[in-house]
Design brief:
about 210 residues; alpha/beta; 9 helices
């Protein structure tokens, strides 16, 4: 079992969209996938509810027991945790669960959004005092590649300061991400070639980082 935690305290960075698309991507590889929703808004559970295929299991955990419970899900190949925002015991428990795999921190491609991500990185530091947690920043909802240079520089500085990596894959802002979620699908099940390329790239990169072949 490998755990992928998708987390950021800042709202609106696309955590649930990334988490749900990863769940679909791994299920398409015929892996047993569990999607854990830690947010009271239950965005990921809502996605699972409208998904016609019965290929993804989804549960809600809104108590700070995720890092303790994670071992009990060893019958799954991949466990994806959609960690809601706000600094809380539940959020910190979700971060801790990444010791079984990897922590992905999506951020929007603006300097201000990257700076706001530092709050999550500080929580990561606290968690790392207890367990080893590999963590990577992911640029999400990119509009144009040529306007993210300042954000990329800010990400590099934070990555160095907090000893986290940066994913090579960038996820662009595409209508298909919103439309697919409303249909209970991942972009890999849609017709947008560019979005598919991005998701395949992200999945391949994560598989190499967590040794999931």
């Amino acid at each position: 079992m490998k755990v992928i935690v998708v987390a950021n305290q800042k709202g609106g960075v696309g955590k649930s969209t990334i988490a749900c698309n990863l769940a679909v991507a791994f299920s398409l590889e015929r892996r047993k996938v569990l999607l854990i929703d830690t947010d009271i808004q239950e965005s990921s559970l809502g996605f699972r509810a409208i998904r016609e295929k019965n290929d993804i299991k989804a549960i809600s955990i809104t108590k700070p027991t995720i890092h303790k419970d994670i071992e009990s899900f060893s019958n799954f190949d991949v466990v994806i945790v959609d960690a809601g925002g706000r600094d809380s015991a539940v959020f910190r428990s979700a971060i801790m669960a990444a010791y079984k795999g990897i922590l992905i921190i999506p951020t929007l491609p603006s300097v201000y959004d990257v700076w706001a991500t530092e709050d999550t990185l500080k929580i990561l530091l606290d968690a790392r005092a207890i367990v080893d947690i590999p963590a990577y920043l992911l640029l999400n909802q990119v509009i144009r590649a040529n306007i993210v240079k300042e954000a990329e520089e800010a990400i590099r500085e934070l990555a160095q300061q907090y000893n986290v990596g940066t994913l090579k894959t960038k996820i662009f802002s595409r209508v298909v991400y919103r439309n697919s979620i409303k249909e209970g699908k991942g972009v890999l099940e849609m017709d947008d070639v560019k979005a598919k390329e991005e998701m395949y790239s992200l999945v391949a990169e994560l598989k190499s980082l967590v040794d999931l072949q």
